Amino acid sequence: MMRLLTGTDTVTDSFEFVPRSIDAFGSTVIVEGCDQSRDISWIHAWTVDSHGIITQVREYFNTSLTVTHFGSSSNKPASVTGLHCPSVWESSLSNRVGKSVPGLVLAI
Fold first, then answer.
1. Closest among 4, 33, 18, 70 to 45, alpha carbons compared
2. Which of 9, 59, 78, 99 has CB atoms 3.0–4.6 Å from 3's, for a disulfide?
3. What integer pLDDT is reported at residue 38 of this predicted model?
4. What is d(CA 54, CA 67) in angstroms, rounded to the nearest whole number?
């Protein structure tokens, strides 16, 4: 995939990155899409700095992703039992690829 994204891949059969949704949670941007001709869903999770520069990219293919906000529900120091991790986003395209896919949780 890296060769395709950087343009060094010489294969003429290209991969279609068609975004279906873009959501932002603080410094994290989630982009979900699919290549319908190949029955592949994908999710990119970008970390963006205060100047709008992408500093980190996480990439998931044919994976069901749930994004949670990791932290305490109060200003008190968090203990293991006091953590509250609400789900803020869930992928919707992974169930459209017609096969079982692994599930992951991304804590931000």
1. 33
2. 9
3. 75
4. 18
Please state whether beta strands 71-72 and 64-68 pair in parallel, antiparallel, or not at all (unpaired).
unpaired
Q: Give, as one character, the DSSP assignment of residue 2.
A: H
Residue 67, both tokens: 């994004």
Name the token pair of 51. 């100047």
Please say whether the dihedral angle defined by the alpha carbons of residues 35, 37, 40 and 41, taken in this order, is positive or negative.
positive
pLDDT of 41-56, one tens digit each?
Answer: 889 999 999 999 999 9
Helix spans in the chain (H): 2-6
Q: Output the pLDDT for position 69.
A: 80
Amino acid at 79: S
The tens digit of pLDDT for each residue in 55-77 reads 999 999 888 999 988 765 555 55
Calculate the alpha carbon distances from 98 to 7, 10, 94, 103 in Å.
29, 29, 8, 15
Residue 63 vs residue 94, higher pLDDT: 63
